[in-house]
Fold Cytochrome.
Amino acid sequence: MGARCVSYEKADWYTDIALVDDPHAYFDYLRAQGPVVRLPHRGAVAVVGYEEVVQVSLDTEHFSEINGVTGGMVDLPFVPEGDDIGDELEAHRSKIAFADQIVCEQGTRHANLRSILSRLFTPSRLKQLQPRLAATAEGLIDEFHGDGQVDIVRQYGGPYGALVISDLLGLSEATRARFRKLLEGAIPVPMDATHEEMMKNPLVPVGKELFGLIARRRIAGHPLMRPFRTLLAREDILGELAKATYPDGSKPSLVDVTGLAAFLFGAGQDTTNRLLANGFKVITTRPDIQTELRRDPARIPDFVEELLRYDGSVKSAGRLCRKTTTLGGVEIKAGTPILMSHMAANRDPARFPDPSRFDMDRPRIKEHLAFGRGAHTCIGAPLARREVAVSIERLLARMGEIRLSEEHHGPESARRFDYEPTYVLRALKSLHLEFDPL
């Protein structure tokens, strides 16, 4: 889509569709004013400097993750008063949208939930998964290879992410196929979504089915179920989750365990899909890079790291000031919503010289913030890197001279791309490619 007219001075990051096409330009505008900037709406403050984003990510005393999903759209069920609202936030957590998600938790509860997920991402488990990554890629490529064209978002990236997470959880082939069908055509929650629209998200039925699968495995461990254990028990990854305990020996609720499994589908499936699409946008608009990656596939990991910095799939995350503080020379009162942008930080020229240039030879290339910092660093980062690298390697190996479809994206002199209207993800709606089958 062509550039929409927008006044950055009056723009509302959370609702202004005009900011969707080119968030980098908007963040450049904000950063020119300073690393921390007051916004004209919602009483929010934007944090766009690299060092300042790191500081907020690490400072859990002054900043809460409770609005990690909703950002500036958070509707506090109380009027903030005073310079420390930490206790009030926790007292009202159950009334704040999405505050029970792992990305919005903090302290001991967050550490407990993360300890459950960490068992899925051990080096040995990821190594075991590696052959499945390549096999899944090959299977999906086979579905469109003979056509010489593909929408990499719908036909490859979406199903690939869902199938990989299914493998990670050890789901059966039948369940894998059912989940793939449910997630076909899934889109990120739009900026103006109602609660009813959110509940139509395909992740809702996925979560319900996961609840049943995990509950069955947990029930099998009950003493009264001993006569039926051979019928109910499953020695698989979902069984491990069903039996998992927190570090102190206590057992998480079924709702908590199911929420973690469903979270993997939401966070893992879509972000990786969108990152891969952003990657092929670079590959098809930079023939020199496509040539380099074909000549030397060993450079693909460097490409992925620079892609994460240059145009990652996550634009922003929310924080809430829980204790009045000063950041970047700006006083921030308790109760202030924070727009924290890893995307903006990754293009901070104070940290990355010539940030709008894609450079696979960039020094300290892995110091981007695409996966966050601190306690909320993305636990699935190692898997995401492997998924994207394996996908690029197999797609380049099977597809010769990959080109953008002019029918869908216009001629080289006037390219057009449509993005999902979300303030969280940098998400192409589609990316139509043409290629010569190899």
Observations:
- The chain has one domain: 17-437.
- The mean pLDDT is 91.
- The longest strand covers residues 399-404.
- The domain at 17-437 is CATH 1.10.630.10 (Cytochrome p450).
